[in-house]
Here is the input.
Amino acid sequence: MTHQTTLRYSETLLRRSVFAFWRRTVGLGFVVALVFVGGGLAQLLYKGDTSWIVGALAVALVVGVSFIVVIYVVHFRNAMQKFRDMGTPEALLVVEDKAFTLTSGIGSTSLAWSSIAEVWCFKDFWLLLFSKAQFSTIPLANVSPEMQTFVLQRVRSAGGKIVG
Here is the structure.
């Protein structure tokens, strides 16, 4: 069985998809941990402590904040560069029993369903995760419910995880 549709991208959609990836990747637990580190650091500085613990907490806070900023910036820049490289902000998605193909102004790629580790489902788009740091955004505006069901079934049967 074959399904195909034209995917339409926009800067707004890509900004939202990168933010969704960033939010799930970083997670609330990491942000809470940084708040605790920052609170502990502030308390020690307020007391006038200048021990190595203050330095270690400061380094942990700077590295942690840098980490979450870099994750967003790198993925956002990559997404915007690919968006600009596309020319026309459209891609053709063809899904078949054994593989799927994405074709745009950048080029074409065909991948087996087993290459998708996870699908993160959001209201207006999906993120197809190939690894912990690599994903593709699939806008759902032109993807029929039948095609969505087919994709999720193929990913699941190939061992991929559906989240959301």
In short: The CA atoms of residues 7 and 142 lie 6 Å apart. Helices lie at 11-46, 52-85, 145-157. The beta strands are 3-8, 90-95, 99-104, 108-112, 118-121, 125-129, 135-139, 161-163.
